[in-house]
Write a structure and sequence with these properties.
single chain, six-stranded mixed β-sheet, binds pyridoxal-5'-phosphate, 334 residues, alpha/beta
Length: 334
Amino acid sequence: MNLSSFPRLRLAHLPTPLEPLERLSKHLGGPHIWVKRDDCTGLATGGNKTRKLEFLMADAEREGADVVLTQGAIQSNHARQTAAAAARLGVACHILLEERLSDAPAAYQASGNVFLDELCGATIGRHPGGTDMNAALEQAADGLRAAGCRPYVIPGGGSNRIGALGYVDCLSETFEQADAAGIRFTQLWTATGSAGTQAGLLAGMSALEREVAIRGVSVRFDRATQEEKVFALACETARYIDAPPPPRGAVVAYDEYVGAGYGHPTAGMREAVELLARTEGLLLDPVYSGKGMAGLVDRIRRGEFTGDEHIVFLHTGGSASLFAYEWAFERSAH
Ligand SMILES: *Cc1c(COP(=O)(O)O)cnc(C)c1O
């Protein structure tokens, strides 16, 4: 897939590795599980937002922006990677954080990603849960314009057709690596939130004319809502790159692994995070990849795969928030 006509900055360490998880596969007795290490994109502890930011920050630069604005939950990995990308470019960064977990302890409010946002020099505004964050974002941009700045607004999660290009590219990178390794994977799993990652993968599948089942695990919305979000953005992204729209039936976002809501720990998430740490020394995160992996583990245990299938789990990053979520794990006294 040739994306060379789209402005892009180099922020990520690419290609990220595609690695077999042999001990996990053996432990689960199911298919061959591979991990696509987008937790290793390299920008201030990495993650999936870095691929999107390569295209978004290039657009910001083209527009002559001197400050970038974005929004997310308190422990937003997107906010942290945006703050780091802005630092790399030497532009200011302002982040609006929504307090979606009202009863969380002090570490959640101040450690993990929030600490890193501030370390990278971003300024932060906090908003109560339920705020219309996109409206708040536009309002903040208006204020900056009135003060003579040139703000560039990045939507939550970096999820628009520009950011999604990062995952069009990731899909072709993954196919190249799988081809080189001599494997054909049947499914690609990812956690899905603001939808740009899954939408980019789906648009990439259309563009490449290759067949793979893309499975999203929703971390926030019910299945119908999430699938519509992903489908709409996948169609828009496909149009942007002159590819046919993906079929609606190719959009799957399971909602059984969300638990009480976005960012709320679940037993399956805890098990998945501990399992990957203890079988593979691999750190997942409590909000996204932990729930995504909980979904994959559940489907394997239900016997949905054959032993000779190859499945790729896209590790979208986020382990920086583990330090803000220590309370969600059982620990022996220390
Ligand atoms: C943002 C994020 C996701 C979800 O990606 P979307 O493009 O927002 O759907 C998954 N995992 C991690 C760690 C994230 O930070």
